[in-house]
Design goal:
The structure is a single chain. By secondary structure, this protein is an alpha+beta fold. The chain has eight helices and twelve strands. It has a single domain, classed as q2cbj1_9rhob like domain (Jelly Rolls, Sandwich). Strands 2, 3, 4, 5, 10 and 12 form a six-stranded antiparallel beta sheet that branches. The protein has a four-stranded mixed beta sheet with strand order 1-9-6-11, with no helix packed on it. The longest helix has 17 residues.
């Protein structure tokens, strides 16, 4: 890459998501829209009461560790700035013990299998849907150590087939001031982009030079779902509040006929073994479900994470 190319300015614009709920009755239109933009946005795809119920369980974890401000309403998720022990782990916003408590929640894992999500993805794939076993929760307590997630592509971390889609959803209403997600329209068509080191989850920022950027975002509500391709560039919006915790989840999906990397079948960040995660579950239905598939495993390519020199900001 030449210095001239590095110095070319980018053009940044912000726009608001259009709702794609009507395309659930038009599978071909759904697939065309994803092919064009690299993402789809659905208002109220999931029942808000189920989102709120999971939010309550995760906020209770935060309260268990003393991170909720005394005298505040639990469901408001207001952090106590004087609390200790909030040193984050693995880009999820909280230490391993607390994250392990979240990973133990059967309702957290079950939400990824919600019929509304699987039905939407089945239309998108036009075939069977494999829910990745690795599931991510983020408990982003406002603190300097919890930097916003930089602009990145999921594929370099997930690997396997590029035909992996992430469903991102906030656990509760998430106005832009609380720090939702922003995606770069059409960026999945740019291929795998070089990266530089950065703060925030993943530790990598894509290098964008001479790209006419159209960042798309919205004020999310409980039950809204954003789904995007593994090459779609996205980032978190900074949490501008002083004390409110942003809770969200990332679930990933692919056709089981396509290659998968083995880390997609282990608990996120290996925080606990599956045996410990499953210990308190009431049902065995969703335990080791991926073993029912004959999967084609692909080796991990560490070179995709190699940092490239660039002056791009």
């Amino acid at each position: 890459m030449t210095k001239a190319a590095e110095s070319r300015p980018t053009v940044a614009r912000n726009s608001t998501f259009q709702e794609h709920n009507a395309l659930l009755d038009d599978p071909e239109g759904l697939r065309r829209q994803m092919a064009a933009d690299g993402f789809l946005f659905f208002r109220g795809l999931l029942p808000a009461d189920e989102i709120v119920a999971l939010r309550r369980q995760i906020v209770q974890v935060c309260d268990k560790y003393g991170w909720i401000a005394p005298g505040t309403e639990l469901m408001d998720g207001i952090a106590d700035p004087s609390a200790e022990g909030m040193e984050p782990f693995c880009g999820v916003g909280v230490p391993p013990d607390a994250y392990g408590d979240v990973q133990r929640l059967e309702s957290f894992h079950r939400l990824a299998h919600h019929p509304n999500l699987v039905a939407m993805l089945a239309l998108l794939f036009d075939e069977t849907v494999l829910v990745h076993a690795l599931k991510i929760a983020r408990l982003m307590i406002p603190a300097k150590v919890n930097a916003p997630t930089p602009a990145h592509q999921d594929h370099i971390f997930i690997q396997g087939t590029k035909t992996v889609y992430t469903c991102w959803m906030p656990l509760g209403d998430c106005p832009r001031a609380l720090g939702g997600l922003s995606v770069l329209r059409g960026s999945h068509n740019l291929g795998i982009l070089p990266v530089r080191a950065a703060e925030g989850a993943g530790g990598r920022h894509v290098i964008l030079n001479d790209v006419d950027q159209d960042w798309v975002e919205t004020d999310f509500r409980a039950g809204d779902v954003l789904v995007f391709h593994s090459l779609t560039v996205h980032k978190s919006i900074p949490n501008l509040t002083q004390d409110r915790i942003r809770l969200s989840v990332d679930f990933r999906y692919q056709p089981p006929s396509l290659p998968i990397e083995k880390k997609s079948l282990i608990p996120h960040c290996n925080v606990l073994p599956w045996e410990e995660i499953y210990a308190g579950w009431q049902s065995t239905e969703l335990q080791y479900y991926w073993r029912d598939y004959e999967l084609d495993f692909q080796e991990y390519d560490a070179s995709l994470l190699e940092v490239q020199p660039s002056k791009d900001l």
